[in-house]
Amino acid sequence: MSENIGMFGASGSGDTSGFGGLVRSAANFGSSERPYGSYFDEVTDELERAYPEFSDAIEKVIVDRGELTLHVKRERLFETAMKLRDTQSLRFEVCLGVNGVHYPEDKNRELHAVYPLLSMTHNRRIRLEVSVPDSDPHLPSLVEVWAGNNWHERETWDMFGIIFDGHPGLTRILMPDDWPGHPQRKDYPLGGIPIEYKGATVPAPSERRSYR
Amino acid sequence: MTTRDSYASATDTTEGRVYSVTGGDWDSLVTEIGQTKEERVVVNMGPQHPSTHGVLRLVLELEGETITEARAGIGYLHTGIEKNTEYRTWTQGVTFVTRMDYLAPIFNETAYCLGVEKLLGITNDIPERASEIRVLMMELNRISSHMVALGTGALELGALSPMIFAFREREKVLDVFEMVSGLRMNMAYVRPGGVAQDLPKGAVAKIRETVKELRHNFKDNEKLLVGNTIWMMRTKGIGYLDLAGCITLGITGPVLRSAGMPWDLRKTDPYCGYENYDFDVVTTDTCDVYGRFLIRMQELEQSLRIIEQACDKLDKSEGQPVMVADKKIAWPSQLSVGSDGMGNSLEHIREIMGTSMESLIHHFKLVTEGFRVPAGQVYAAVESPRGETGVHLVSDGGTRPYRVHFREPSFNNLQATSAMAEGGMIADVIGAVASIDPVMGGVDR
């Protein structure tokens, strides 16, 4: 999907960059087949039982490297989260935050939000993944479900530009309040801005040598 | 009597009239405020303040000396480490992430490496000796980190001597780090596949001696603080946060354990072979600053126990490899400690420059290009001194990470500041924040 050749702006010479003409493509896993193994079958069964709209809400179930990922439709995210938290047999009472991943090549699903969940009651971990298009980056806020997601959602807004509807105060948290752009997106260059120090200006790293 | 001060004038805002104090103008300010009925004072504490644990900014709304609203402002130490790692190889990532939570570098490194190893699918191929060294280093690091938490926490509440003792002990641990990795902080010692190099000769004996000294010296602080009336008055019932509050805020580490929950990833979800060590999870049920202080004090002893067991294991595994056997991942040479930290070993340079062209090519490719990691995503977590340090790694199959995200316990736990401080006295917000033990390098990353 994206091809990297050369580094540090070198061209016309042997490629010593380390990329070696590497063609990289975003991982595109299909849904895993049952049985999932471990406690994953039990978790999905229990969720299906507790949540009648399961088949509509969950787009994909992926088991990879001993971890369960549920891909949830954003319209159903809030309901799914409530079910996961409150159902006796699931009890995912802790959410370890949210973070974004930007896949510019994944058309209409450019921005992904990932929620690692933890059930202390059953000592289980699963992951929720939601994708939104870049043109309409809205997700329901889960601060009502897990209050600790407050700052994590602010960080994801700050770094990726995902808007969490219903968040009590969605402002930037790591970058200054008046910062333009969202630094963790793939179209945002490393460094990104010229550095001003005592009147002199040093160009942004992306201008000094090409990190590509 | 109101005098106009161009630097500290009263201004009308949408929130109402706001008065600024710059010093020396207290009388005029009191007169001016006395004319209005509202007695709301907003105090900005930090980001440059000796009691806020680095560059934390607290905005406190006061009624008299009681805090009615507390907000934490962060981001003053944001360094873009997560973004930077996307432009480096997986191995170079270690050098970056070690600088996040700078009081617990080994934990950042280990969490990151466990994640990379999970992505590579080599979790079970890590040599035992490497895991033993990781455990040893992590527990030493837990001691040095808790020493700062205890020392600065006490200092911020006005007790100077505990800080002196704490930093004296921390120095001993840092000496061990220097002997093992060449560096006192930010060692980049734990690498994907194992550790950068084996322990130097005599290290285990020296560590055993250090453990003895530490165990003896910890009593100094214990005598000073445990049961001390003044200390208890400043910490008991302060910064209260019960279990329900901890769970909904996603709090982990000593703060969660002070609410009576024996949650410790070393027990509940063991990694690096922690299931083979004998130690206790310390809890209290006081939910306050004193409870968190006691937990940290007792965790020191538990860490010493683990270190002793690790030393026994290391004696037995002497001479075994400390890096995964796969030559496509492990660097061809063992590094060695030089006068300026860790560096290339001379024998290896002699070999690749003098005798083997192929070794040179292999070394060059592996170091500049790095190894490829199969596409996918993982989450790996370790129990750091502050709670669950989680790493979310995404690979697209390349030689560089596609996304590295750290779930920092400091970042998450700092959200509890409002819950702990509101309704309390302004002097107690210091104790509450100190008991969370946030490290701003980790919070802002």
Task: Offer a quick outline of the entry.
Chain A is an alpha+beta fold and 212 residues long.
Outline the secondary-structure elements:
The complex is a heterodimer of chains A (212) and B (445).
Chain A: E1 2-3, E2 23-24, H1 40-50, H2 54-57, E3 58-64, E4 67-72, H3 77-86, E5 94-95, E6 99-102, E7 111-119, E8 124-132, E9 138-140, H4 149-160, E10 163-165, E11 195-197, E12 200-202, H5 205-208
Parallel strand pairs in A: 4-8, 9-10
Antiparallel strand pairs in A: 1-2, 3-4, 5-7, 6-7, 7-8, 11-12
Chain B: E1 11-13, E2 16-18, H1 26-34, E3 41-45, E4 57-63, E5 66-73, H2 81-85, H3 92-97, H4 105-120, H5 128-156, H6 161-181, E6 190-191, E7 194-195, H7 203-225, H8 229-235, H9 243-248, H10 254-257, H11 265-268, H12 289-316, E8 336-338, E9 341-343, H13 346-354, H14 357-368, E10 376-384, E11 387-395, E12 403-407, H15 409-413, H16 417-421, H17 426-436, H18 440-444
Antiparallel strand pairs in B: 1-2, 3-4, 4-5, 6-7, 8-9, 10-11, 11-12
Helix pairs in contact in B: 4-5, 5-6, 5-12, 5-17, 6-7, 7-12, 12-17, 13-14
Helix content range of chain B: 40-55%
Count interface residues per chain for the largest interface.
A-B, 48 and 50 residues
Number of strands of chain A: 12
Q: SSE string of chain A, helix = H, strand = E?
A: EEHHEEHEEEEEHEEEH
Mean pLDDT of chain A: 81
Order of strands in the sheet with most strands of chain B = 3-4-5
Structural class of chain B: alpha+beta
What is the CA-based Rg of chain A, rounded? 20 Å
Q: Residue ranges of chain A: pLDDT <50 for 5 or more in a row?
A: 5-11, 13-20
Question: How are helices and strands ordered from N to C of chain B?
Answer: EEHEEEHHHHHEEHHHHHHEEHHEEEHHHH
Total helical segments of chain A: 5
Oligomer: heterodimer
